[in-house]
TrEMBL record:
This is non-specific serine/threonine protein kinase. Coiled coil: none annotated. Its EC number is 2.7.11.1. Residues 320-366, 511-532, 546-601 are annotated as: Disordered. GO terms for molecular function: ATP binding; protein serine kinase activity; protein serine/threonine kinase activity. Residues 338-356, 519-532 have a biased composition (Polar residues). It is an enzyme of class 2 (transferase). Residues 546-557, 572-585 have a biased composition (Low complexity).
Amino acid sequence: MTAAGTWLGGRYELLSVIGRGGMAEVWKARDHRLGRDVAIKRLRADLASDDTFQARFQREAQSAAGLNHPNIVSVYDTGEAVDDATGLSVPYIVMELVEGHTLRDVLRDDRKILPARALEFTEGVLDALSYSHAAGIVHRDIKPANVMLTESGQVKVMDFGIARAVADTSATMTQTAAVIGTAQYLSPEQARGEKVDNRADIYATGCLLYELLVGRPPFIGDSPVSVAYQHVREIPAPPSSLDPEITPEMDAVTLKALAKAPADRYQTATQMHQDIERVLKGVPPLAPMVTRPANDPESAAATQVISPAAAADNVATAVRPVEPNPTGVDAYPVYQPGTGTQAVTRETQTPVSPATASRGEEPDTRRKKRWPIVLLVVLAAAVLGVGGYFGYQLFGGPSPSNSPSVAMVKVPAVTGMSEQGARSVLSNAGLRTKITHVRQGADTAGQVVSQNPAGGRSVAANSEVTITINDGPKKITVPSDLIGMTEAQAKSALVSAGFAKTDINVTYQQTSEADEGTVISSSPNPGQQASDGDSITIVVAQEAPTATTTVTNNPQTSEPTRQDTGGGQDTGSGQPSPSGTSTGDDSVPASQPTGGQSGSS
């Protein structure tokens, strides 16, 4: 067993254990080369000979080592060291030692998280995911226990232990007995064992946001299987139905991230981040608003109920063989009161099949007791069905020949797609497309920003779906004849061109090369284009100051004295300096006396 004081790689001294789990133990250590404390995650020595654990451990190191981002726990180094007890080479990962709390700790403290803070925490997670997705890495296990909140309030995502490159995700998602990821944050495609991409992380982030807003995950069940089934088939209640402080805009963002079909969610972490930023600024998000109340019968009808056996069939591919893990727990380096760190564990739950959960009774006994009840239910249903049919026919129900069935299709969600992509998706669904246009921000230019009917609604085949395309901000052309206009004329011309009065800025420049009060330049230049809402600056000519020389009588000497206001000096010759001009009615040549008689009396 590894002991405190052990050195790894001739550089790291193990100080104290801060967490143990089924696969690894985490130590607080000292990096003597750089003089800093670090966290070292080391594979358990008794598992070092297991290829499965070796591969997973190496994958975590490889996934996180290349991710250098302020919202991701940094990996500094990796290596292997021989265990003295077993003689095996044991791999280890050297990580940033983060002091703070996980979001799971915050939620377990039953502290109310303000909705705005919940959105801000989620933005930090999305920043990390945007970076990892750009690097081709899907996390696959976003949940509160894997999100750290440092003492300074910074969000850090950790544990890329089951992360995979996007290109590899289709090969290894379906094996059985321990849920891949965590059931409460599992995307429907993960639960079905389908190919997974970055949108699975978007779904998990939606689950995280939901829990931060209302204090619980969107789906709760007795077992991982029952929870996974809900992810596949059931629609979550809007967060506002559980907490009146949640706004419809927050509902819209959360439920879009929780869309069952990946194509109906935000397509990137950046898109979701931008919508959250809109909500924080008081601007409506691009996500469709939730208009139907949670207790609407039609909404309730959308949630289908199937038998426990069918539920187990639906989610059977969401589990994999239990790895030789005696505790089913992984440990992470986080804060612990009194030591500066905390051991946080990730529990791997083993699903219990609904068909074998006995609750104290043998299956055969329960089936025998249920037979009378089942028989009564079947008979009652038969009587009601026959009676209902004849009653319907007797009291004017339309005959089958008068009521031909209409094929119904579900409207795909195309918000966020390009016009061409939306047309193609709707056409493949058997629907017609009507296009309208609107001008909004440049970040969604060329995309579908709304649709009617909304995605997920059932309509008759060949129905028309109206989609609205954002053409981007309106472009305004600066008048080409702006130069030479007066300030008033220029302002009027700019307003006529489409600029708002408040967006027109005026500066003045002294010059002798243009008439005073006329425009000599602008930014943007005449003839160039600007977006609606951009400001424009015009430069107006101002007359340059002119130097003057004023000649006045000196009462003491009866000699004229010059005051050169333009910088010229009296040359003593009775002539002003070249830079001055003589002004005033009493100005006379210096050689002529004034104010007295010449000669003696």
